[in-house]
Design brief:
Layout (H helix, E strand, L loop, with lengths): L10 E7 L4 H17 L3 E7 L8 H13 L3 H9 L2 H7 L1 H10 L4 H10 L3 H13 L7 E4 L2 E4 L7 H16 L2
Parallel strand pairs: 1-2
Antiparallel strand pairs: 1-3, 3-4
Helix pairs in contact: 2-3, 2-5, 2-6, 5-6
Length: 173
Amino acid sequence: MSDSPSPAAPVVLDVWCELQCPDCRSALADLRLLRERYGDRLDVRLRHFPLEKHKHAFAAAQAAEEAVEQGQGWAYVEAVLGKVEELDRRGEAFLVDTARELGLDAEEFDTALIDGRHILIVDADQAEGKAIGVTGTPTYVIDGVRLDGGKSQEGLRERVEEIADRLLAASGG
């Protein structure tokens, strides 16, 4: 242990999500509030869990990873989730157009969807989610506690805040 005070590590909140999911869109407001309240003390990590019933969810997860690479992961996720009906209708063309609207390299998105460079990340997230019992989206995991937002968002943000506050108090954050 060093004598110099080091900043406390952020609390990690994994959000198992899929970008064609109306319930995940409903969760956006809570996620925004959590990110505003905690800033860099809470590491909100998007984890992919595309559901088979949504035919564009797997491509959307890959596109979200490309947005992360281009430095606008959350902006992209929010833009796509804000228009799930359009994703339903237009599929990959919508994903590329959304990238273009955000000033991202749309050609690179198109190429990433063709060459599948992000498939392993999406597959790994999905496998990990299944291994820990994720069955639907959104599902939150914080400090080993799994909270299912697919049934209802009611009270979930408050529960996440209780756990985050406890962890931050214990670590001096």
